[in-house]
Design brief:
With 541 residues, the chain is mainly α. It is 65% helix and 4% strand. It contains 28 helices and six strands. The strands form two sheets. Strands 1-2-4-3 form a four-stranded mixed β-sheet, with helices on both faces. It has a two-stranded antiparallel ribbon with strand order 5-6. It is flat, with a radius of gyration of 24 Å.
């Protein structure tokens, strides 16, 4: 199984700053994760059992954010990085309430709330893992989404990782050894992350015996783990999730740790569960409550879990297996949620294989089963649109009908209350296929509105650039492409795109035409801003 590591690493380079991930990989899943987590602060914790909030030895928030940006930039470049609008929308529906609850509880200081990224990055890796990075970035493997039984279990993991960030555990660990440079810290963490799944690769990335020895200093202490459990539990329950999710997640991890250590649960190796931590979480449940059981997932979670499984392994054999499961006579004896998940996977698999007729048959069965659950309506509708778009031979009339189902009528985009990012992206795909000026313009305006509140959405900028290109607006297309690169922290690529836009403006002026002065002003201003960021980025290396 391929590690979710920067592509440069697989080529033998050490894109080390990525590594800081490892030191933070921990969590409510907490008994396994990145591979690094256990020792250092144990000594700390014994000396001072109270949380060291506001510890003056911690790395400054600005420095931590810069380090996190360097790591995140490497993740954005990795081929296993995934921006799937449907899965991202589901994870965001859990993540945003957790952030809001952390603010309400006072866990987020105004400084780090404003300065940190608070961004979740998905990776195709099938290992069960999640990790916090410096600066408020969180990584989530598809393997984690695939294995959790419900939203509450996923919320327990994200709440735990969020608490590592809000309590400044990461910066305090990094600051413990002031002799280590950020470069060296990055190398250690990347080596630990690689070693969690491939010992040979991890050893190759460690910088000699000094790094191996110092890496242990980046492990979360038991005290930090307990603190993240406690605060994470409070955050998730205040956000409206059931605290039982914490306990059932612990149960799942404990059972896995008893079976073997074959690499399926790296989360456990980084944060071994203790009976004390398990008992503490159980004690926080209402008095007299029965021992929680994960139970059957909701229809929505069953579909999202299946989507994670399919996207993490798109090999032909795996896709054929999903198709076969849908035809198994025993399927009808399973709970409805499991049937829904299986049919969703079969329809996705057939769509990926370009077997559209079969995908539509599975979709029809899925629609019948999921009709009674309103929360399942949007994901089923989006899957139907994905299947139709996979056909690539829809007539204009069929595309127009699909556009209507997605909320586009004529030159108007219907801003339904439940329209979310996946729908926006699908609308854009339909508009690009129809290539009608009025529809391209309407969807483009809708995307611009979205980007006002989500200016760091790289996929939305990239899609907007495609819409501008289709409308023969190359200047705006170049600017959108630059913003997409900037959102991925690739300031070199962003500056190049803006310089190309400036060259185009000069060429147009030489040919006797002038660019819109507003567009020209925006491009010039952004070029200067990004050039300054690029210089700062170079100084940080």
């Amino acid at each position: 199984m391929k590690n979710w590591l920067p592509a440069q690493i697989h080529k033998g380079r050490t894109a080390i700053l990525f590594i800081s991930a490892c030191a933070c990989l921990s969590g409510s899943l907490s008994a396994q994760s990145v591979s690094a987590t256990s020792t250092t602060a144990a000594a700390d914790s014994a000396a001072s059992p109270l949380p060291q909030l506001g510890d003056g030895s911690a790395m400054g928030s600005a420095d931590e954010r810069r380090l996190g940006d360097n790591i995140a930039r490497e993740l954005f470049r990795d081929p296993d990085y995934l921006d799937d609008p449907v899965l991202a929308d589901y994870v965001q529906s859990i993540w945003l309430p957790l952030l809001a609850a952390a603010r309400q509880r006072g866990e987020l200081t105004p400084e780090i709330d404003e300065r940190f990224a608070w961004q979740i990055m998905l990776g195709r890796d099938r290992t069960v893992n999640a990790f916090a990075l410096p600066g408020g970035y969180l990584g989530v493997n598809l393997g984690l989404i695939a294995v959790v039984s419900n939203r509450d279990e996923l919320a327990s993991v994200l709440g735990h990782e969020l608490s590592h960030v809000t309590q400044r555990h990461i910066s305090r660990l990094i600051a413990k050894d002031s002799a280590q440079t950020p470069w060296m810290i990055g190398a250690m963490i990347l080596g630990a992350l690689a070693a969690s799944k491939n010992p040979d690769a991890g050893s190759a990335l460690m910088v000699g015996g000094q790094a191996v020895a110092a890496q242990s200093q980046l492990n979360f202490s038991r005290g930090m783990e307990r603190e993240a459990d406690r605060i994470g539990f409070g955050v998730m329950t205040q956000a409206g999730f059931k605290g039982q999710g914490f306990v059932t997640m612990f149960d799942k991890l404990q059972q896995a740790s008893r079976l073997n250590d074959a690499g399926g649960y790296p989360y456990l190796r980084s944060h071994p569960l203790t009976t004390e931590r398990i008992a503490d979480m159980e004690a926080r449940l209402p008095l007299g409550a029965p021992h929680p059981v994960a139970g059957t997932p909701t229809l929505l979670h069953a579909m999202m879990s299946t989507r994670a499984k399919v996207l993490s392994n798109t090999g032909v054999d795996a896709l054929r297996t999903w198709q076969a499961q849908a035809d198994d006579p025993a399927l009808q004896s399973l709970p409805v949620a499991l049937q829904v998940g299986t049919l969703y996977g079969a329809a996705m698999a057939s769509s990926q294989l370009r077997e559209v007729a079969q995908a539509r048959q599975d979709l029809a069965r899925l629609q019948t089963l999921a009709a009674a659950d309103p929360s399942a309506a949007a994901p089923v509708r989006w899957l139907g649109a994905e299947i139709d778009l996979a056909a690539r031979d829809l007539s204009p009339a069929q595309l127009t009908a699909l556009a209507a189902r997605l909320g586009i009528t004529g030159a108007q985009v219907v801003h339904a209350a439940d329209m979310r990012r996946p729908q926006l992206m699908l609308q854009a795909q339909v508009a690009l296929q129809l290539n009608q000026a009025s529809m391209l313009n309407a969807v483009g305006q809708s995307l611009q509105t979205w980007l006002v509140s989500q200016p760091h959405d790289a996929l939305a900028w990239q899609t907007l650039g495609s819409l501008y290109t289709a409308q023969s607006q190359p200047l705006r297309a170049l600017r959108a492409q630059a913003e997409a690169q900037a959102a991925r922290l690739d300031y070199t690529g962003a500056v190049d795109r803006l310089r190309a836009a400036q060259d185009l403006m000069r060429a147009n002026e030489a040919a006797g035409s002038t660019a819109d002065h507003i567009d020209a002003s925006i491009i010039d201003t952004r070029q200067r801003e990004l050039q300054a960021l690029l210089k700062q980025q170079a100084l940080n290396h």
